[in-house]
């Protein structure tokens, strides 16, 4: 038994049919509802804070350090994602979801009570240590209770949570900051977090247990976290606080590369590595990870930069530009839903992502070569782009979870979210660098006040966004190519689905 407990299961040992979970449909629905509520906490936190930043800066009389309120959460949550995935495979999902949610809620309380900007920044880092674990744990818990073939449908539900948070977060943040107090954006997390745990914990005893106790590789985890934090800092500061070719930034990137190489060497030489190299290799996992990262990066990068385009070219106000983002963000849910239905009904499920990513590539190319266009045409093309892009999310997640051993689903899911966060940060930094290079002036991406505020003509902005849409097309073409090259392994499913497939 001791030997079994310390075993690292290779990817090829994944079972072909997942055992059925002893849960009724009503119990699964309640668990999924509580997981969606838990996920809504972190999704809302990423959008609600930005609206209140000016008010926070006025109260603390410190505007120069406001960006760290966002950056501290980003750094800690990204670094924590793979750690929670690995820990859930060792100590179980229940302990980790309690730890992640509790850290997030404690961080929220400290944020709400903060009396200075430094305390708020540190509290946001603490909050991120909890929030970074919620998404991979939610995805892993869904994998524990639902077979891979049915899983795509639930991934679409979780995509809708991000849309709701993306639309409602800025509105709530503005209302709280203007009419109540900015601390309400953190106090609201308490009832939501407690309710999600009350709904979830009593039912977790019936969730199948797949974790295997083994030693935790702290050295490997610290090497991976350190390399991620330094790399994200380099992306955040590059082109703004530091020039891209400055000695300091080059030294940071070099340090991140060296730490990554040290992590790979350690993983290959230690008996029980934090993230086994075979787990993230093979004909499925690396292709699904990078393609999912490309899709999310292409969406996030355009979401960050499109308000500047709307305000400069179409002279929209800040609130109108925010509304114009809805097609880009909301329609991804329908793409995820379509892919989920395809995964349930057909054997060749990856073609939904290939077709969707190809459609997104075509839409981005049309935008790159055809702008300027009427606003309604741009919004329509972005909606079609989002529809195709949305198909990539459930296919990437489910393909990875279907390809690895049950006892390593948490580790693989945490690694997936880690790669997606890094790819998103890289895409945002790349798009910003391209736009600043084309425009030839230092503007603050994300702090929009209309084109006139930056002194940029609509013609210059159109020229810059031709390259951004071209970059988005390149990201999505890469995703489509990787899905095409990825091995399509049969999805495990309920016995009746397996019997129907055999009959075919």
Main β-sheet, in a few words?
none
Give the name of the CATH superfamily of the largest domain. MFS general substrate transporter like domains
CATH class of the largest domain: Mainly Alpha
Q: Which fold does the CATH topology of the largest domain refer to?
A: Growth Hormone, Chain: A
Strand content: under 5%
Identify the overall geometry. globular
Low-pLDDT parts are 1-21, 446-453, 495-504
Instruction: Compute the number of structural domains.
Output: 3
Mean pLDDT: 80
In the CATH hierarchy, what is the architecture of the largest domain at level 2?
Up-down Bundle
* Rg, nearest Å: 22 Å
Percent helix, as a range, is over 70%
Helix/strand/pairing category: mainly alpha
State the distance separating the first and last CA atoms.
Answer: 41 Å
Secondary structure tally, helices? 21
């Amino acid at each position: 038994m001791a030997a079994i407990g310390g075993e690292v299961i290779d990817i090829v040992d994944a079972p072909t049919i997942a055992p059925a979970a002893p849960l009724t449909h009503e119990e699964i629905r309640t668990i999924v509802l509580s997981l969606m509520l838990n996920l809504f906490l972190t999704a809302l936190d990423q959008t609600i804070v930005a609206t209140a930043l000016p008010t926070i800066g006025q109260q603390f009389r410190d505007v120069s350090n406001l960006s760290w309120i966002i950056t501290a959460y980003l750094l800690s949550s990204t670094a924590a994602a793979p750690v929670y995935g690995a820990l859930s495979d060792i100590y179980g999902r229940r302990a980790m979801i309690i730890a992640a949610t509790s850290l997030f809620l404690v961080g929220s309380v400290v944020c709400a009570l903060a009396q200075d900007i430094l305390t708020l920044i540190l509290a946001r880092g603490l909050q991120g240590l909890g929030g970074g674990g919620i998404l991979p744990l939610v995805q892993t818990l869904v994998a524990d209770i639902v077979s891979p073939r049915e899983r795509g449908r639930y991934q679409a539900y979780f995509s809708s949570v991000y849309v709701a948070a993306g639309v409602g977060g800025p509105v709530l943040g503005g209302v709280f900051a203007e009419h109540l107090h900015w601390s309400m954006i953190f106090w609201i997390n308490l009832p939501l977090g407690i309710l999600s745990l009350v709904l979830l914990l009593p039912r977790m005893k019936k969730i199948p247990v797949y974790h295997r106790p083994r030693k935790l590789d702290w050295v490997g985890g610290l090497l991976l976290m350190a390399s991620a934090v330094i790399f994200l800092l380099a992306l955040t500061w590059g082109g703004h606080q530091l020039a891209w070719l400055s000695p300091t930034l080059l030294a940071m990137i070099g340090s991140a590369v060296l730490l990554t190489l040290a992590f790979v060497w350690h993983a290959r030489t230690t008996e029980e590595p934090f993230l086994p190299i075979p787990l993230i290799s093979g004909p499925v996992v690396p292709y699904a990870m990078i393609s999912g990262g490309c899709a999310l990066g292409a969406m996030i990068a355009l979401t960050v930069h499109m308000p500047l385009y709307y305000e400069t070219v179409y002279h929209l106000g800040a609130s109108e530009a925010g509304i114009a983002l809805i097609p880009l963000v909301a329609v991804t849910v329908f793409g995820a839903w379509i892919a989920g239905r395809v995964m349930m009904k057909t054997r060749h499920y990856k073609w939904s992502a290939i077709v969707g990513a190809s459609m997104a590539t075509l839409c981005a190319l049309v935008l790159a070569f055809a702008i300027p266009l009427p606003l309604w045409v741009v919004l329509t093309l972005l909606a079609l782009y989002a529809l195709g892009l949305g198909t990539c999310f459930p296919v990437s997640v489910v393909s990875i979870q279907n390809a690895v051993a049950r006892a390593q689903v948490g580790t693989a899911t945490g690694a997936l979210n880690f790669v997606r966060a890094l790819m998103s940060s890289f895409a945002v930094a790349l798009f910003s660098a391209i736009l600043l290079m084309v425009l030839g002036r230092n503007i603050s991406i994300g702090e929009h006040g209309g084109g006139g505020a930056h002194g940029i003509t609509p013609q210059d902005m159109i020229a810059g966004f031709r390259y951004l849409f071209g970059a988005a097309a390149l990201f999505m073409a890469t995703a489509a190519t990787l899905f095409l090259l990825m091995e399509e392994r049969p999805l495990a499913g309920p016995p009746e689905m397996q019997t129907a497939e055999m009959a075919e």
